[in-house]
Design a protein that fits this description.
- The structure is a single chain.
- The chain has 58 residues and is mainly β.
- The protein has one domain.
- The longest helix has 7 residues.
- Bound molecules: zinc ion.
- The site of zinc ion has 8 residues, from loops.
Amino acid sequence: MKRWLSIFNERCPKCKTALDVSKSNALQGKVVKTCPNLHYKKEYHPALETYIEHDDMK
Ligand SMILES: [Zn+2]
């Protein structure tokens, strides 16, 4: 469960606000995390065991 704890405790690199977490696709288990101020977005893909990061949301 350490992986999941780390997922839910991450913060925006710019404003240090805790990221909002949503599961956009329950079947795939994909997790999307976004800064409430739209600085940063990060997607976790369990099937690929990788993150895709976006820091240019504007
Ligand atoms: Zn932010």
